[in-house]
Amino acid sequence: MKPEPEDEPPQVQQQLEAKPRRLYQAWKGNNIFLCGGRLIFGPDAASLLLTTFLIIAPTIIFCYQMKSKFHDSNSTGQQHMHRAALVIVIITTIMDLVFLFMTSARDPGIVPRNTRAPPEADELLLGSNTPSMDWSDGRTPRMRFRRPKDVIVNGFMVKVKFCETCLRYRPPRSSHCSICNNCVHKFDHHCPWVGQCIGLRNYRYFFLFIATSTFLCIFVFVFAWLSVYSQMEDNGGSMWMALRKEAYSFALIIYSSIVVWFVGGLTVFHLYLISTNQTTYENFRYHYDKKDNPYRKRIAANFAEVFFTKIPPSMANFRSWVGEGALEAGFYTPYIGLDVTTPREKIDLDRENKEVLVGGRADPNSTSEHRLWFL
Ligand SMILES: [Zn+2]
Ligand SMILES: [Zn+2]
To answer: Palmitoyltransferase DHHC domain spans which residues (predicted)?
Structure first.
């Protein structure tokens, strides 16, 4: 006789009742997902509101200034200049906000995590500096260590570490963001102003955001000074009178001269990083010499890598369905793009485990050298 649902043990009952969820609903990272997992923000995304305000407020003041000057101008030349300034600032501000949104609301390059560690291979040895707890055999847990692996990148030996939170080896150039609680590919830094990690998939937009902000600051600064200067000419060269009559321009000069140090300095620093093919994290941590950076190419090629290569698709499909059971039983994603698995390990894993790929995607854009690590 077929048992009634209420006769089932509580665990089975729970599984029967469990509704399938999408990956973003079960995601263990600290991200905020909107629009059904299509938009991915960091946990501090609220700071976006402040950043947006800091861009829009001075722009509104500047536009108001230009509009009133347009009406007060007594020559068509001045009118053209004020109208052009107005249009340029509006277009640049819109671009700035679009780049900000593209940086904040997209997957920065999150590396899908495993809910249980891949089976131990012969690389699991005592003595490294990455601890993990071994609960096998039901005995007292003891500290285990996963030794970093050496992989070859462009002829250089690079160490990849095991992430104890994501339970997998980090692809080269990845790091675990403690704020978002994810491993991020080509991790640059976590930016509190955009409330998101900066990584492989949003670095281009981040750079365009800071570069556009710098342009905006310099443009507003120059035009605000021109307004003060022309007011000085009208008031017999008195700077005091000019500043009194151009209070808004004066405020814009102060504001833009403070902000330009921040965004301009950041833009110059990132121009240096791009030209030498480093991330901020690598720059602070490894202090690469000219010769020991495995990723460095010619300057043009380094720039092309950031601005003219196709951005790879998200490694995690946050809208894919995951079964409740799969998450509880634990799964791992050993073969997704940029995983670090030697050929022998892969054969062993194939034999020993049923692979449950949840949300993981192979990276079609990984280079042949990258592919070597998981073939
Ligand atoms: Zn991690
Ligand atoms: Zn982060």
So the answer is: 161-285
